[in-house]
Amino acid sequence: MAPFITSNAALAALLGAAGAFVAQLIINHFSDEAQKHRLRTAFLAELRNMPNFTSVTNRAALNASQEVYLSNVNQLGMLTDDEVEKIVAFYSDLVHQRQRDLARRVELQTKKFDDSLQFAEYRQTLSESQVKRIEERKNDAIEAIECNYDDWR
């Protein structure tokens, strides 16, 4: 009778371990999904709170916060490839445009202009197409995140 008890105990232990393993997988899955949701929420908040980049007079928009991006760049792999591609494209363009704008301001300080109209025309060309592209990329990133926003529920 002892072998029967031993095999039942072994079977019970095996079933208990399998149940614990499955439970842990489920917990990990929901934890990962909740973390993705929090990450998407943070990115959406940061992107939506950024000013409109297409306004040429709104050069301060280039200094928009990228705290969420910088703090979570190592977690981007949790998101879909489309989300990652569009988020990285936006922030890369933003940083590149900041650098171009800074270089342009230095150039404006050192360049000689014949009159204020020439200065105004030159200043107006401060990469308007790039700024428009940044706004488009921001909207693309928002759209990509929104497409996956409710997937975790």
Automatic annotation (TrEMBL):
<protein>
    <submittedName>
        <fullName>Uncharacterized protein</fullName>
    </submittedName>
</protein>
